[in-house]
Amino acid sequence: MSYTPVVRRLIGAAGLVVFAACGEGANGPTPLTDPAATSARLDAVHSALAAPVVRSFTRFSGGIVPPAAGLGPAVSLVAVASPALARPGESPYALSARRALRLRELAPELSTGASLVQIIPDTLRGSVFRWDSASSGYYRAAPGGGPANGVRFILYAVDEAGQITYPLTEVGYVDLLDESTETSARLHINVRSVDGSLTFVDYVVAITPAANGFSAAASGSITGALSFAVTLSASATQTAVTTAVDATLDVASPVTRVELHEGATFTASGGAISIDFRLSPPGETVQLQGLFTVSPVTPDSAAVTVNATIRANGRVLATVQGSPPHELTFRDGEGTPMPGGPVLDMLGKLMQAVGDVFEFIHGLFGPVGNLFGGV
Predict the structure, then answer these.
(1) What are phi and psi of 177, to 5 degrees?
(2) CA–CA gap between residue 42 and residue 36 (Å, rounded)
(3) pTM of the model
């Protein structure tokens, strides 16, 4: 069994992590009857989202934007989705808080109302973009070679921590296809292999702007692994931003349904993300429900603490508190430590899956957030 570095720090750092049993006391039965089977379902979620090209796309989505000179002055309504690449060691929850801050800063423009425009300007269509290590951003490498109704961005290998590896190694590309209509901004996104023969991710995002925010819906699949449907909405004032996300992921094998319901409110001084993560039947039901508190939120940092409850089949399995990724504590109602074993193994994989799904869902909206606003 292998974990990401974040999860290994969570469950392996001596003196920082304390796990505790749950259920009906130290010697009582656990409400989880088949932890190995649940772990296998969580492994399937992780495998789908951690595939090299999928992970590269998720990580690079924050940088998938043409140079500013290629775009017009219109404000990107969904810049909240991805303002930049994640920083080394940054949790997805902290990055989400920084994204929310960026939307709050756009409130003066949003409050004047918004109109739909072309997502990808005609002057950029067909272009191919490559990564520039010196500037840590994409540049227009060729005016042709990309799709006629969109643009192409080359994807590169990332390490286990999600950071770009050097020298740069191409692992695929993403085509952004503008399929906008008069009533909806619509972007079709294909993530493909280097030679274009394999499609790894295929989905469509539709965005509807509002006077003080937007709503967006994404649906599609990771080929051969899972399908997904996500809705996202956000509203902002000059002092605060509120967002909501509802997502469903259906894994092909073993058959597994994952749901994530998220609500967040942020101001300059901090905020909170409420998360309801569910692994649904067939198989046992496992749920993590709680609050990720963020303080303070600045363009450069965000400190996160979590206070959540984990349930199995409707009964409390554990509570978790602490500061991810460095300190987490798992306890039952009696504070009894949990010995190593399959339940502990499952809890580690659950925490990893929550972070994987959270990061993937927010990454889906990255290209739209950077491009929407057009000419």
Answers:
(1) -110, 120
(2) 10
(3) 0.82
